[in-house]
Amino acid sequence: MPFFISTHIKLFPHPYLADEDGFLAICNDLSPERMLMAYQFGIFPWYSEGNPVYWFFPSPRCVLKPSEVKVSKSMRSYFNQNKFRISIDTAFENVLIQCRDIPRNEQEGTWLTKDLMKSLLQLHELGYAHSVEVWDGAELVGGLYGLSIGKVFFGESMFAHKANASKYGFISLCKLLEQKGFTLIDCQQETEHIKSMGASTISKQEFLSKLKTNVFHETQAYKWTDWTVDNGIKS
Prior knowledge:
- This protein is an alpha+beta fold.
- The chain has two domains: 3-58, 2-Layer Sandwich (Alpha-Beta Plaits), CATH 3.30.70.3550; 62-214, Leucyl/phenylalanyl-tRNA-protein transferase, C-terminal domain (Aminopeptidase, 3-Layer(aba) Sandwich), CATH 3.40.630.
- It contains seven helices and eleven strands.
- Strands 6-7-8-9-10-5-11 form a seven-stranded mixed sheet, sandwiched between helices. It has a four-stranded mixed sheet with strand order 1-2-4-3.
- The longest helix is centred in the C-terminal third of the chain and has 15 residues, at 165-179.
- The protein is globular, with a radius of gyration of 17 Å.
- The mean pLDDT is 93.
């Protein structure tokens, strides 16, 4: 049974107390402080507009080491042709809107509610939430966003309006994080899309162990606008 947490209680229950679906707690506090507290333990909000805020810790956990991202032959040709242009943190709100609005199979509505978007925008201004934008000329054709704490990037959502645009952005993110010494990307739940790029699942024990180690790493809490990606991808 999930725990109800009033807003004046600052801590979450231990992640091991989540049920078999990963449902851990109900807490309507989406402040940046609450969000950072949750994410450093691998807990994240997932709910729909008009409902209480549900917090999850799914297990097993889907993760990817940035250095182990798989780049298919077809994607290598995209990079060799510089098919798209990548920017970081230049259109964060637009990326949120696109992730919110893009239709998804077997999903009605969106978990990116007004209050959650407000909190994410605050975290972006504080330097914890980041976006990768994929451009075709002046058109935003793909992107993704997530939170950065220590040397772990907690991926949240991605979108694409052109074929392979989200893959292009995700691979670019992996190469960037590898250059910056990041050790892990939390992909949350396994999908065929993310598995095809090298992600795999680990136990909750192993995942929490990695997060405990992560607390010793300093968070690069500022906008990454000036970061550039040297993808090093060759055909």
